[in-house]
Design brief:
CATH topology of the largest domain in chain A: MetI-like fold
Number of helices of chain B: 11
Distance between the termini of chain B: 54 Å
Distance between the termini of chain A: 78 Å
Strand order of the largest sheet of chain A: 1-2
Number of domains of chain A: 2
Strand content of chain A: under 5%
Largest sheet of chain B: none
Helix content of chain A: over 70%
Oligomer: heterodimer
Amino acid sequence: MSRDKSNQKSIRSMIQENKSSRSQSAVMEKVVPKIFLICAIISIFTTLGIVFTLLTETFTFFNRISIVEFFTNTRWFPFTADKNADYGILALVMGTLTITAIAMVVAIPVGLAVAIYLSEYASAKTRKFIKPILEVLAGIPTIVYGFFALTFVTPLLDKIIPGGISIFNALSPGIVVGIMIIPMIASLSEDAMNAVPNSMREGAMALGATRFEVAMKVVLPAALSGVIASFVLGISRAIGETMIVTIAGGSRPTADINVTESIQTMTAYIVQVSQGDTGYGTTIYYSIYAVGMTLFVFTLIMNLLAQFISRKFREEY
Amino acid sequence: MALINKEFVKKRMGSRIAANGFAKFLFILATCFSLLVLGVLIYRILSDGLPYLSLDFITNFASRMPVRAGIWSALLGTIWIMAVTAPVSFILGVGTAIYLEEYAKKNAFTKFIQINISNLAGVPSIVFGLLGLTIFVRLAGLGSSVLAGGLTMSLLILPVIVVASQEAIRTVPREIREASFGMGATKWQTIRRIVFPAALPGILTGTILALSRAVGETAPLLVLGALAYVAFVPENLFSQFTVLPIQIYNWTSRPQEDFHMLAASGIIILMIILLIMNSIAVYIRNKFHKRF
């Protein structure tokens, strides 16, 4: 009898426990999504934080330096007495665009050629061998590329170019930024070309086209939106690249283009200021936010453009 | 009679076949160029860096004298930064991914989060440095500390982890979820006991690859005000610090040849760390990857 009683009791308590655990899990069911939602909202706050930070500090900067001067002056020379300081973003933008142009001259033909080779010519075995190597190339930190530019590419160019090249110049970091971007353009373009169905290739070949003609006249036009988008993303990467240009590009902002001389990009300027002993609240301190804002707008436009191109002009098969 | 007259084909198509051969040659040349660059780069770093590489190099502090200089403080700084970045970015990234894949309704807000994440991935890393400088260093008053650096790095690699985790969660088939619901499990129980474990290898692979990107990242920490010359080891989350890439940058930017060789030695250590992390990621992907 007594045993029964204890059993009854335990069942009752079990039900009780079950109820409480069920209500506990009911609470969890309500709370957990909220926690995850907070995680997701943090990513929005990151964007808001970036925009807010850049806007407020840039605003302070424009209270001291006129916005007209910022966009029209072609000299960037902040490290001097306040009255003589020049804040013309054009000099830094030209530096960035020079690097980007050189990088693209290297990265677009080579990257596209690698992509065409991998998707149209290479056997599955070769592809399996080359793709991981490209991934390694893509995973190398930019500081390593910077070291490579300064200690290998610059001396090499100095020997090749008649008349030599100064130790800091635009050409060497430009080429190395291009090399850094090759794997990215190659893999994104290859993805786009792989998405073109085989039946189209076979159709062209049945009409007597060579592989080269198939690649150029059938596959490339069909994959064009993805290929162009990869170029634009490459440009965005080149604009935002920091360490290579800081190490090998020098720190002489100039609006004239001479690729054998020292230049300064927007990113390199930000590093230069944060490496120096510029105090909080000085005009120079605020200037890095104005430069950062310009940089942010440039890359944002490029990224949105890439998304627009790949969405708008995609050919569906 | 042969179906194809080789002579005729050659006469009519000769130039086109030659163009094809030439183009193929150029494409192979471009591919070989990329491989060659990697080869030269690795050779240069090994030939410059190996002479200085020793146990002392790892355990010594930075020094003005190249022979006595080492990377101990930078190495520990990198580990400290990772100790902050890894848990923070993992929790935030996986949380966001689970929300977007499992809970979020298909509405404008969800789409906005998704677009926002893909745009964040394209923001230059140095801009994250400016964000960290204002929010963590100045507004939160953390100073140029390990905590400020780690949090900035977490935000930097967050988009990568979110996208990788989303892909991993998406590969878990609907049938096993429905089986779990059919057994009476609640949504959270299903996610915790079925979906998350099944997606974990993919999530971990993505996270480790993202972390390896953070290990090599220099610019944001430079902007935050991480020190270039540090002769001490970080003691807590609020200590000042340096990391391996910054130490390498410091040595590279000096004119003396000896320091360049030190930089190359530092790069060897950095690349070894990255290689180990990538190997672990590949191992997890191959070993634990389940096909449903």
